[in-house]
Each structure stands twice: as C-alpha cells, then as structure tokens.
Amino acid sequence: MDQYFIIDFDSTFTQVEALDELARISLRKHPDREKIYKQIEDYTNAAMEGKLSFSESLANRVKLLEANREHLKQLVTHLKKKVSISFSRNSNFFKLHSDNVLIVSGGFKEFITPVVTEYFIKRENIYANTFVFDENDNIVGYDRENPLSQEGGKVKLLRQMDLQGEIFGIGDGYSDYQLRESGIIKKFFAFTENIERKSVAEKADHITPSFDEFLYINKLPRAISYPKNRIKCLVVGDVGEEAIDQMRKEGYDIRHKDTIEQKYLEEAGVLLCDEANQPTPEDLENAGRLKVIGCFGRVASRKLSETACENGIIIFDDPKYNPRNVDFIPKRVIAFMNEGKTHMSCNFPDLQPPRNDNAHRIIHIHTNVPGILAQINEVFARHNINIVGEFLVTNAQIGYVITDVHAGYSKQVLNELKAIDHTIKFRLLY
C-alpha cells in the first residue's frame, strides 16, 4: 500500500508563519506597524486554534499586508533560513519519498515553492493558494476559487484528490486536524517543534516534537537514529541560559534540578552542571543512560574523570567563569552527540572524524584490551557489510571506535556488536 505524507508549511516545515513575517517586511516603515503586526498574528492564531474560520482569517491578513513582489523576494530569502531544524537535517527522506510527500498549506505558492523545492519536493506536489497582483506588482488579493482559501479547504482538496493508500498528516493547526476528523487521513501528528497549540495537540493521534520523532515512530529513514526529544538533558547549578538554549534548539528534553539526584541522573542522557554540583564517582556507576557531561568549571577529581571514562561517559569541562564556556561546552556536547567527536574532552582520547552523510555511523566504546577492533570487523565481514571509514583511538582505560558503514544491515549486526566482550557502550549515531 502506498504511503502519503501531507505536510503543512507555516510553523511546521518552517519555524515561522510566513504571512506574519511578510508583514514585518512590507510594513517595517508603517507608523502603526506594531499594531498591525499584532492584528495579523491574532488572526493567524485564531484560525490555527479553530476559533475563527480560515477563510475569514486569510482575507483579513492579506488585506493588512500592503506587500508586493519585491517584498516576497525578501521573504523567500528569510524563509530559507527558517526551515525547521529537524526537517532540514532529514532532507534525504524527502529525496527518497519525493513522489509521496505533499505540501498542503493555506499559505501561498509564491513563497512556499522556492523554499520546499530545495528539499526535493516536486512542484506538482505543492498545494497552496496564489496571490493576485495589480499592474504595479502589488498584492491585491488571492484566488478565492482555490479550495485552500476556504474554510475546510484541506479537506475539500484531499477529497478531490482521492489518494489511494495510507495517508499521514503532519501540522500544527486546526486545519491539519480537520483531515483526521474527516476520516481522510489515517493519523494526524501534531508538530510542536516550533509552537504547541494545546487545542490542536490534545486532538492528535501523536504529538511529535520533531520530524525525527515522526520518522522514528513510523520506522522511516532518518538522519539520526534516536529522536533528541526522547533524550533528557539534566541541568543542575549555575548553567547559562544561552547554553541551555543551544540544547533546547537541538531538541533535547530539558530538566532543571537544584541538586543531582540519582533518580534523575539515571534517566538523563546528557548532564550540564557547574563546578559546585558535580556527580560523585558512585553516582556514575548507576547512570546507564548517561553519555556526556558538560561541566561549567573544572572536574572535581581525577577519580570522577576516570570513573566516567570506565563507564563510557565523556566529560567536557572548562575553567569556571571562562567567558567562552557558555558557548564552548554545549558545542562540544552537541558535536559528540551528533557526530561522535571527542576533541577537547578531559577524559576521552581525541577523535574528530569528518561527517559522512552517505553512511551510517556506529560508535563502540570498550575496555582497552587487544583484539576488539578485529572482532568488530569480523562481524561486519561475516554479514558482508562494506566499511566506508573507520577510526580507532585509545587511552589507558578505553578504546573508542567509530565505523562508517553502508546502509543495509539487520538488527542482528547491531546485537552482535553490543555482545562483544569488554563492550562498555554502543551507539548507532545516524
């Protein structure tokens, strides 16, 4: 059975509402611009939450814009920088499913098409409204015969299309939910990476904080093996908000606590802490999910550093109050989590492998004893898996191996790698 993916544009494919952004461009010199911005945003939110008909909202917003083709060019440039992070990193999914991904939006083709076609989405699979211009290229209205300009427009359009197959809807607004309510689509996924509309989310089959989560739930190809919104980032002590924002933008589930408690540490994949609030070596013995510690200050003791290493937990630290650490620590943590880079860690051997987007990356951390690399490669050889690149570094305690392999292997391969004697931690990175 064919699968179709119906994806909204505003606040879903992109981080923003395009008409709101267009107003900020076209009205930037208007004396009442702040008042008009607010009016447009209110109309947008009322429609997205189902409190105002979409057709009425659209008409009111377009009337307030005072925009032209030159403003649209500026908007497109802006929107290309505002593609939702999880959509951006999964561009390969759109390439693989270009026949089955449809952008269905109450927005306008004039700004949607230049943005989404850069992600392998076909022009004929873009369904949206179109502006009407006067002889001076000013926007004076839109095609009101287009069903997407009308209340329940997405439902009307999909009924006309009569797609045969399993249809999934992904969006942030009430018009996206209406597809599920009408029975046209199998499941509606409320996309909350950019905004969560509670009145919509509570009606969804699933809440998906990122596109990675949608792909993971449906066992579809994705850029990262495990959605970051499922990884808890525990924050303890004096950690700068700028650093936390970087982790939040990456999609991690942020949890603030005053002190390190074992029950929260056991749930965490990432720990950010200050010099006065570090875990003890004993704490780390039972922190089976913890992969990385970012310490804003120096690590308390050599024993803590060594215990972390023995348990496959990397630590990045920096002198207390160093102006760079608000940026340095999260960037090191993110580079490790995303690509396996250990550069400037205080307890792991140094490795900075280049990213390979045409391969899957596997990380194997093991006790530093002879013969482990041979066992890893024997597993790959036995399953006829081609190794694209491989990197091994060691210190006195551990061996750290990154292997990039071609796609197309079974779970059995991963299970055999995990089962190698002296394995400490194993990760399929992407």
UniProtKB/TrEMBL annotation:
This is phosphoserine phosphatase. Residues 55-82 form a coiled coil. Residues 361-430 form the ACT domain. Its EC number is 3.1.3.3. GO terms for biological process: L-serine biosynthetic process. GO terms for cellular component: cytoplasm. It holds the Pfam family ACT_AHAS_ss.
